[in-house]
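Worked example 2:
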Amino acid sequence: MAEIVGKEALPFIPDDLSLPQFLLDVHHPSRPVRTKPQAWFIEETSGREIGLDEIRARTHGLANALKIRWNIGQDDVACLFSPNHVDYPVIIWAIHRLDGVVTTANPMYTSEELGYQLQLTKTRLLFVHPLALNAALDAARAAGLPQDRIVLLEPLPSSSCVNVHDLVKFGLRERQAYRERQLEPGEARTKLALLLFSSGTTGKPKAVMISHYALIANMLQVTQYVKPNDESVPLEQKRYRAGDVVLGALPMFHAYGLIMITFTGMFLGATVIVSPKFSLERMLLSIQQHRVTHLYLVPPQAILICKSPIVKGYDLSSIRFVGCGAAPVSPELTEQLSRTMPDPNALIGQAYGMTETATMITMPQLDKRTGTPGSAGFLLPGISARVVKADGSLAQFGELGELLLRSPAMALGYYNNPTATAETFVDGWLRTGDEVKIDERGEVFVVDRIKELIKVRAFQVAPSELEGLLFDHPDVSDVCVVAIPDDYSGELPFAFIVLRPDIQARVKGDLQEPTKVKEGLMKYVSDHKTHFKWLAGVEFIDAIPKNPSGKLLRRVLREQARSMLKSGQLSIVAKAKL
């Protein structure tokens, strides 16, 4: 298997447009046309609807005010430090109208973490939600950013900081002070649009440089794959069509929430429900109230939907598509999601993407309800892939190895980090760091992060495989499997498990019960998996730590396990039994 390529040819990708010009000002032939009046955004908390005219006006008004007040211009960086907000994309597009760059920050950051991002990106303007203002003020001081360069997304009477609402009103009253630049042919390929930070699972987060062209290319890759304009497919059978309603509950500071859900959702003609913060009950209510058709999740949210008893009290019949990503999704979780969705024709699928590819790499098979168990789907049009084994040779179909990619949506590298760029972007290929296999049909199966694989006596064990199995056990609410060191085997798999509430109560009420439940869970694994995948032990925990995009913070529990092992607090199965 030398190279696999996406099956569809790509349509024309304009390379002389900025992101807002592509989304707000022109019509691409691939874009479906709305035939009925429909809001582009709906604010979840208030129900406020926002149409295209208002979006354009707010974008212009804000851009004009930023030019007049701070002379924001070419390559100036603005940082967005906020949960999801209806003005989140407006701020991004306003900065782009001025030829600037936007970096997005996790609103849960400490002042130290935000300060690092402000200094690295040389931020000139900081947009902040009032809930995060204290951390922002401390970070701005540490980064040398004056307080008058802080803009609030909502008015706050107790603060002297200006807010977006007032700036928009001011900018709309004043004569236009900026001239939006038309990019030269080819310029969008290298014109920086976003600095999105990686999750930083090893060391400090890296700033991924994403061009305007990469964002536009990925939207068109997805669109070409899902074919919303294909007249040979009856309207009721199309997975994507103008008039869809997408729930935007994933964070916009992350590529999945910003590029796939918000930007691509808009391009495909959907209304995006802007949810400021994930809450299962709030999400279920929004699905029912707004008749959401497309639901994008990360595995922890999918687990909640499958396990929570409150789900049965809500009408989910409008959902036609459930996409899960950001971490490998087990066949067991896919099957449980399938049983949870009322519509028997709703597609339940896993997709795969990275910030470094401006998000989407694969999409699920659209003509089946669940597709092949464990599959992340097929490569998008325009993507080429290789699978490289540990010895450097190319893998054959069905063989495991690291996934290497080429795509028109590839990032430009890591900002101010030539070493990391050289390690990841090699001879035109992106090294993903993910172990995968690709079958003869071109279907991609993502096993796990290579660095997270557990090596048991030279055998490789994927934590996600064991997590998927344990998740299907009736006693388990959530789970994370980590490696613990072992003199004989090198490493052994160890499970941290969150029990279902009724099982927790039972365990706390009987001194013998914890041991019995642990032994039962370990036997469950040994009954279903080969011997080198058996668990060395189980530890009960109140919650599995995760980052805001839903990825397990495996390193936290790995360090906790090793510390407990060293202090004698962790009991493991004797080596001879493994």
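The mean pLDDT is 91. The two ends are 36 Å apart (CA to CA).
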